[in-house]
Structure formats: C-alpha cells, structure tokens
C-alpha cells in the first residue's frame, strides 16, 4: 500500500493554482524513513517540472513580468537544487505556478506574433513606443502666444474682431483691414482712437503699436477704421496749415519763419520754432472758458500770465507733449458749452476717464485748430512723421519698376476698325479714327432715343442704367442730410478736393455735390435737363451736360470748370 504526500502550504494557495501530488511507497511500520532523501527526491521532481514549463511557455521573472527578448536580467530563480539550501529557499522553489496566467500569456504572444507588423502612422501622438493612447507628455510643449485680440469698427458701427501680433503697428493693421475688406490701398486709411464717453478721438500715428494703445483705453473706447486724407497733407502744402502770423521763433519777439524753411524748422530738433495765438481754455472744475495767449514749443504748451509776453517769468506750463496726446473734441459746443465748434484736447497718457486731468482748448476757426494740432504732432514725433510719410512713396517707387504701364496690354492692342465695306480695314489715320468714334457715339444716341420713343426700355438699357448706375459708386451716399455730409467731410480730413454726392432734400430729381476747399465746405446742386427727349445732368445750368453722374464726376476730376478746385478725394465709407 502507498501513501500520497503533498509537500505544500495549502493555506497559501490562491484560486486557480494546482498542486503537485507525489505517490510514494508506504513505509512499513518497522522500517525507518529517511526524510532527507525523501525531500531531495521531491525537489528533483519539481526541478524537472519547472524546466519543462520553461521550455513550453514564455519565461517569467520572479515578480510575474514577461521576460522580453534582448533583455538580460540577473537570475532570479532559486539556486541549483543540487546545492544545499535553507529550508526557506526550498519552500520558495517548491511553490506551485500560476498555470492560467501562463496560458493567457501564451495566447497573447501567439496572437501578436501572427499579425503582420504595421507601422504607427502617428508616432508623435503616442508617448511610449507603440502606445495608442495620448498622454500629456506626448505632445510638444506649447509656447506662450504673443497675439492679441483687437476689435475694429467701421463707419456703420459694424465691428470686426482681428487677431494681431503684439508688436503690430497701426499702419500694418490698416493694410490688413484693407486686404480683408477688398479696398483700394491708397495710403489714406487710418485707425482712430475713439472715446464716446469723453467725446474725444484722434488718429493713431503709423508707427504706434496698437496693443499698447489699447491697454490705455477704457472698456467703452474703441477703434474706428476710416479715411484720413489730411494725415500727411501738411508735407505737401505746408502754407495751408501754418498761417504766417502764427509761426515764429522762440528767441525773438517779432520774427517770422520763411515759407521755404517752414517744415525744416519743425523737423530739425536743434531749431526752436513756436506756434502762438489766442485760445479759449476751459477752467478746471468749472464750465467757464477763458481766452488767453498761448505758446506751443517743443518743451510743452505755455500760457502767458501777462498779455502776449514771452518772458520766462510770465510763462506757465499748461501741458507736456512727451506724455500726452492731442484729441479732437466732438460736439464740444453742445456737451461742454464751448464758445466755438473748433475744440481740441490734450490728454495725458496715464489718464483714462478723469475729466479734471484733461486740458480742454478751443480755437476761433478751423485753420487755427488744424495749425495747433499739426504743430503738436510735429513737435512730439519730429522726423519720425516724415519717415512715415515717405515709406508708402518708397514702396510705390519700388513697385513701379515691376508694374505694367499705365495702359494695359489689351488697350495697347486695340485699333480703330472700319466695317462699312465688305471686309474690315484698320484706320491708321488718327484724325479719321477720332471722327469715326464721334460718329459712332452720335449713332448710338440716336438708336437709344428711337428705342425709347418706340416703347419702355428694358431695365438693362443704357437710358435706364444712367438713372441708377451712380448708386454703385463709393462717393455716392444716398439720402443723407446736410449735417451728415459735413460730419463725414470733417472726419476724413477737410483737404482740398474732398467730395461726395448725395440726393437733394429740396428737389427729389436733383443731386448735390459736397466739396471741401480751403477747409470750407460748399454745396453745388446737380439739376436734370432734357434735350431731344433725352435726360442729362448738369452742374452749370446746362452749359455742360452729362448722361449720368459717373461721367460728371470723371469730367470734374480732370477739369475744374465752375468748381473752386478739381475733385480729388472721394469721401468713402467701407463696411468691414
């Protein structure tokens, strides 16, 4: 009879583990059992079983991890069973193995080895090699963004949000808006800083950083995108901006600057010109305005405490130029009870909405206000303004070498043709070509008139288009009031030749040409007149007639006629 002995710690068996049972011969009661030999036989049996499992399955380390190929580990199994080991080690070597775990690893190895090796198409999305999941450390570190959000409004109060770099200037932002709005880039667009609560606005200089200006604005303030033809007009016509009686030297009492050296004296930092004259000053914390004699120099704006004296003991500093900006006052007569409509303000940069820190000033006419404000800009920025003025001209001169001629290639290839005979012929004589063009024009008018008499023309007929074609032009603004036309001319610079067309309020069939000349706004009525059954438009009581308003504008852009000056700059409003 044999006895079965299991040499294992049964209390330490987890579920799913198997035990090794040994069948030993049952000793006789009278025989002595050699326990040491019995244990050695059991250990040798376990050693053979362990070796067979290692050959048939994936090798495991002592901590249950998979042994990868190419990796070298220190041997973690028990020492050779032939050596004498402690009973603790012998018990560790004789523990049963997790057979279900070995089978699971074998199946996983079989499945992965049977599939073809597919490369990972997105290795940058996997942190460990071969990992399909995205972890925070797998992506490259994101750099801090140096862009800012700016909201710009057009004349129709429609805003546009633009993301710009932190160092973008006002000129670059204007060019970006021109590109996005599909406008004509004629270097007359400007970015305007508008403060509706205080009734102030100013045109940003081209070199100013937009983000820095935005940081000094309140939540109610905003940027406007509009035309400003007078931004650098003083470089072209300095005598129109600086009256002779207002410009003098600081050191001498009764000396004027020659017109030829006018701009040089302002741009040269070593010279000391000044602007002098009377201004109305609003007293702080009071609604009263006081007329005083002022002097504007590079060091600041001074008020004379004794008449028009230039002596240093009679001059009191009213405002500094370095840390201040000059603004135009909007509706100052209505809001601030100003004596005239030509107000301006000197606002320190540190001030946001405090009315007490503002220096409210008022001139007697528009020319005086323009002189004070232009001199303030020249004294503060100097040669930098001249560089801003020259940059667009340098770019235009650079592009002119690569640009096409004034006439396109298609226009140069056009020739006058005569198709009166069987075959067409080229008219080489320029006099004959001109007479043929005139004859064709008269024939076209007769045909249009004959079709008009026969019946109502189609909507696409030239006689119908002449009544509505002007509505597509940027200089036509429809039914706006006289006051609105004045406001638009004021905002866009009040330079000579700035114009717009609008519907007449007194005559529903007529139109009005609003024109600026010598900083004064004038209105000219365009009346319809009929000749040979055809409608024309005239500005001089029928002496010069045009079939539509586009022809009228194009004529007066080339000829002065009865107007004080030619039409140069259209007053334009563009929606962003």
TrEMBL record:
Keywords: Cytoplasm, Phosphoprotein, SH2 domain. GO terms for molecular function: insulin receptor binding. Residues 272-381 form the PH domain. Its main location: cytoplasm. Residues 146-230 form the Ras-associating domain. CDD domains: PH_APBB1IP, SH2_Grb10. It holds the Pfam family PH. Gene3D superfamilies: Phosphatidylinositol 3-kinase Catalytic Subunit, Chain A, domain 1, Pleckstrin-homology domain (PH domain)/Phosphotyrosine-binding domain (PTB), SH2 domain. GO terms for cellular component: cytoplasm. It is found in: Cytoplasm. Coiled coil: none annotated. Residues 475-571 form the SH2 domain. Belongs to the GRB7/10/14 family. PANTHER family: GROWTH FACTOR RECEPTOR-BOUND PROTEIN, GROWTH FACTOR RECEPTOR-BOUND PROTEIN 10. This is Growth factor receptor-bound protein 10. It comes from Electrophorus electricus. The lineage of its organism: Eukaryota, Metazoa, Chordata, Craniata, Vertebrata. The gene is grb10b.
